[in-house]
Amino acid sequence: MTPAPIVALPPSLVEGHLAWRGVGFEQDRELYARLASEGQRPPTLLVQCSDSRVDGVALFGAAPGELFAVRNVANLVPPAEARDGISAAIAYAVGVLGVGHIVVLGHSGCGGVAACADLCAGQDLGDPMITEWVSHLRPAWEGAGAADPVALGHEAVRLSLRNLLGYPAVAEAVDRGALVLHGAWIDIASGTLHAIDDDGAFAPV
Ligand SMILES: [Zn+2]
Q1: What pLDDT, on a 0 to 100 scale, did the predictor assign at position 2?
Q2: Which CATH architecture group holds 40-204?
Q3: 104 Cα: distance to centroid of ligand 1 (angstroms)
Q4: pLDDT digits over 43-56, tens only?
Q5: How far apart are CA 86 and CA 6, in angstroms?
Q6: Crossing angle between the packed helical segments 149-164 and 111-120, to the nearest 10 degrees
Q7: Quick check: pTM over 0.90?
Q8: Domain ranges (residues) in the chain
Q9: What sign does the CA torsion over 149, 61, 52, 132 have?
Q10: What is the pLDDT of residues 21-30, one digit of tens each?
Q11: Facing residues of 192 across strands?
């Protein structure tokens, strides 16, 4: 008999949820009630990696309702022509929610960035879905000019920021001064956040 593909949550997730509901949810109960009745007005769209070690809510100390988040492999904003789920999230965050900030957050040891480097060096990644996705990062690899993973990770963030300006809703909001873009990169081992400063360089905050 074929195993059932959809089964009950594993006990570890149920226990974790119940612990959160008893403490974390209780602490923010009034905030959740207000957000539920009034809706969300998050000031910031965060584009972050799916990597399990990177939690934008934690590292920015964000409260519920503060970060509208998109997660994908390599915290990537593809060119606007891609018109995928990321595009829809960006259009909604900017056009409907009216966020005033977009943060692209990269990180050390990113598997998606490493896969891009392998692909650009001529390796066959195997899975066509992964290959097609990380191919969006090829201009970053060419821009970084070397196989240095930190430089490539930073350049990947810059590429996503440039791609964001190709989204009509983003370009329009930036032009009228209602939206600004930011780039950041977290070193997982030290917990140090590097962010693009006013001079355009990554520097520790
Ligand atoms: Zn990653």
Answers
A1: 87
A2: 3-Layer(aba) Sandwich (3.40)
A3: 12
A4: 999 999 999 999 99
A5: 26
A6: 100
A7: yes
A8: 7-39, 40-204
A9: negative
A10: 999 999 999 9
A11: 187
